[in-house]
Write a structure and sequence with these properties.
Layout lengths: L10 E3 L2 E2 L5 E2 L8 E9 L7 E13 L9 E7 L1 E6 L2 E5 L5 E3 L5 E6 L4 E8 L10 H8 L2 H6 L3
Antiparallel strand pairs: 1-2, 3-4, 4-5, 5-11, 6-9, 6-11, 7-8, 7-10
Length: about 150
């Protein structure tokens, strides 16, 4: 008999859920700074999606990347900024960010507290792709993007 996913996962402290392990953001990539992730609901829930919580420490940032799968991101803690395509946007709790397929994106914390966000993706997804030198130069040709990027 297959196991039934938990119907309720309480928070033991704010932004920490009982029985949910803090994971390394990425195993084989070093182009990020001070990012953790937690899988709140995954394939076992039978929805075909995975709900993850990412936390970016003060001064931290995610990897600059793109891929075929899409993201829906909802900030829930602190303040942040994001690059989505060639647009840099300020983020506050409960905003909604949609990252289309093959769109460059990167998230950064702003201020002295962690920036936490929920991220919804499909369970089946492709590997992220980092920019090559030509793509990075093209992104850096946009002054606001160049000021934002951390690579």
């Amino acid at each position: 008999m297959a196991s039934t996913p938990r119907a309720h996962t309480p928070q033991s402290t704010p932004f920490r859920w009982d029985g949910v392990e803090e994971l390394v953001y990425k195993e084989s990539d070093t182009t990020f700074r001070d990012v953790t992730r937690r899988v709140l609901a995954g394939a076992e829930a039978g929805q075909g999606v995975e709900l993850r919580y990412f936390e970016v420490g003060p001064g931290g940032h995610s990897t600059l990347e793109h891929h075929e799968h899409t993201h829906v991101v909802v900030p829930v803690r602190g303040q942040g900024r994001a690059l989505v395509g060639t647009e840099v946007v300020d983020l506050a709790p409960h905003d909604v960010v949609q990252v289309p397929a093959w769109t460059w994106h990167q998230f950064r914390a702003v201020g002295d507290e962690p920036f936490g966000f929920l991220c919804l993706v499909t369970c089946e997804r492709d590997r992220p792709v980092r920019p090559d030198a030509e793509q990075l130069a093209q992104l850096r040709s946009i002054p606001e993007v160049a000021d934002f990027l951390r690579v």
